[in-house]
Amino acid sequence: MPTMRLTAKGVAGLQSDKVQEEFWDDLVPGLVLRVGRGGSKAYLVRYRAGGKYRRLALGKHPHLSLSDAREKAREKLAAVQEGEDPAQERTLRRSLDTTFGALAAEALREKEKGRKPARPSTMRQYRQVVSAELLPRWKDRPVTSISRRDVVELVEAIRDRGAPILANRALATIKNVFNTGLKRGFPTLEANPATLVDPPSEENGRDRYLTGEEIKVVWDAMAWETPVMRTLFRLALLTAQRMGSCAALRWKDIDEADVWRIPAGAFKGKREHWVPLSPEALAVLEELRPLTGAGEHVFPGRGDGKQPHVNSWNGAHRRVRDRTEIPSWVPHDFRTTFRTHATRARHPRDKRDPAGLGVAPHVADAVLGHKEASLGFSRYTGEAERYLLAEKREALTAWGEFVAASVKGGGR
Fold first, then answer.
1. Is 270 helix (H, G, I), strand (E, B) or coil?
2. Would 412 be classed as within a structural domain?
3. Which of 88, 102, 189, 263 has its CB 3.0 to 4.6 Å from that of 97, i.e. a possible disulfide?
């Protein structure tokens, strides 16, 4: 490595045919000019600390002049004489990035790859809120500078622009980000500023369900969709399962007893859930077998396997809803529709009350996959998936007949 008296004019004209070549300044021992083959130049300072030689980048030429590089090098070398290690301190500062942006990135990684990874749909919403609502406002702010007042103003601003539900989701995301940081010991973070902040908007649980006449209208409106999308919607209606679980159905998940064994990874409860298939559910699946039966997924995605199964049905829902002109219904209402009709009395005392299927409420909940907290379940010693399996089959068989009757015009 050549040593020379560096000059401003000489630095500007230095070239090298090597990938990198270093030139040492004899005026400030330790100052190094690194020259790249393409003409790039950068100043470094080399020193010895803790028994090891270290290098610390000072800046690039011409943004950093030679005189300024010498001054910065003298400052770093003086600090070394006082027992400091500038390179190690810079590394430490970088590892202790205490901005909200760093906290959010860590929370995202934990939510995606932690001990309990979130579902893809949850991650999409989480990322959207973080990137669109939180980072534009707080990315470069130290986490300790974000106050409860900041949280309140942010979520209320979202509410006031006409997005009340998004405001609630933003508050939940803020709480999760800070709680994740506290659990993981994020540097300088000692409290969650979103604690005690109430959701800015009220949310009412959905109690929408379809009548027998509406079931027929919706069923008929699905006929205009592609076979894959039509079958997906109809299967969700006939089984009362979530659209995400239905979309992830594989042909091998249906056993010889016509039981759909939903794996834990495709079920919201993160456990295996068994669903007996009625003759009506099997019939709609058989309509699709000639098209997708040779593959793994009943509802395959696009892109030659890059997307294993269909994961978006919003467009189809909008088209079906527009055809039906039935207001404010969503596919998730199929579950409420099942439970409403299933648990009504088969022969109500009041003749004005609509008749139902007479299914016991706990059996209907078992069909839906709701967590069972009864004494009977806690004392059950067999496989949890088999609990009430026969009763679930009876309920779904009756439900399939109900849907078929509704489609034919005899629904209640």
1. coil
2. no
3. 102
